Amino acid sequence: MDKINIEKIKCPGKYFSYQDLKTITFSGVLSLCPLDYSVLQDDNDVKVLEMITQDESVLKYIPGFNLNGGSMMKFLSYGCLKAEYGLSFSYLLKYNSMIIGLFVIDTPAFSELHGGHDWMISFCVFKPLEGRGLMSAAMPNLLQYLKTDIGVKQIFAVVDEGNERSANFLAKFCFNKVDNSNIFWSNGNKSKPIRYCCDLENIEFV
Questions:
Q1: 79, 123, 128, 134: least CB-packed within 10 angstroms?
Q2: What is the four-CA torsion angle of 144, 130, 64, 80, rounded to 10 degrees?
Q3: In sequence order, which residues have a C-beta less than 8 Å from that of residue 33 and are 6 or more positions away?
Q4: What is the DSSP secondary structure assignment for residue 142, as one 8-state letter?
Q5: Helix axis angle, 43-52 relative to 72-84, nearest 10°?
Q6: What is the pLDDT of residues 165-176, one digit of tens each?
Q7: Model confidence, pTM
Q8: Which helix (H) or strand (E) element contains residue 194?
């Protein structure tokens, strides 16, 4: 869990408000639900998220989801607090009521803490469900929401060099490879990170 004195960088409303975070329902049984304080009261959700933190493949692509020995409840509370303070927010991908994936969206304010200055998106789906088109169903709905409701004009993603699966996935949604000279990779992986950008202003959602 990243160590941040959020009291010193409070910026609610600059990039989004907590009230902007809403459930996005699509494909009947699939939905994107914001990570908020209600999750803390759902034992099943907490248990599933605890399982996520033990999956190395998840932590590789969402390193900020590492508990580093802390409790899940404390971690989730901290995630909700970052949303309240306008730094970042997360969306749970659910099949009916079961969590099956995760998206994390960092604002420029949060990226600046790590040497960047852009909107960033990280994502994962649980390994047993890879290749079933679930993330492909979710991503356009999330991007449309980010453009229309939050006002995001460009959003960036980072993948390891050689990770063709993630690169091909991003390419489906108009993410193009860009200069990655300002990347600071902190997940301990020795692979070279590649930076991709999606220009949401040039995308018309149907």
A1: 128
A2: 50
A3: 23, 91, 92, 94
A4: H
A5: 100
A6: 888 999 999 999
A7: 0.85
A8: strand 193-199
Backbone angles phi, psi at 117, to 5 degrees: -155, 25
Assigned token pair, 41: 């009261």
* Percent of residues, the chain, with pLDDT higher than 70: 80
Which of 74, 71, 94, 70 minimizes the C-alpha distance to 82?
Answer: 74
193: number of Cβ within 10 Å = 15
Task: Output the six-digit token pair for 89.
Answer: 């927010």
Which neighbouring-strand residues pair with 104? 90, 122
Q: At residue 185, what are phi and psi to the nearest 5 degrees?
A: -95, 125
Cβ proximity of 53 and 70 under 8 Å: no
Are the C-beta atoms of 92 and 102 separated by less than 8 Å?
yes
Contacts of 188 (CB under 8 A, 6+ apart): none
Strand intervals (E) in 55-160: 88-95, 98-106, 120-125, 154-160
Contact 201, 146 (CB under 8 A): no
Q: CB–CB of 155/146 below 8 Å? A: yes
102, β-bridge pairs: 92, 124
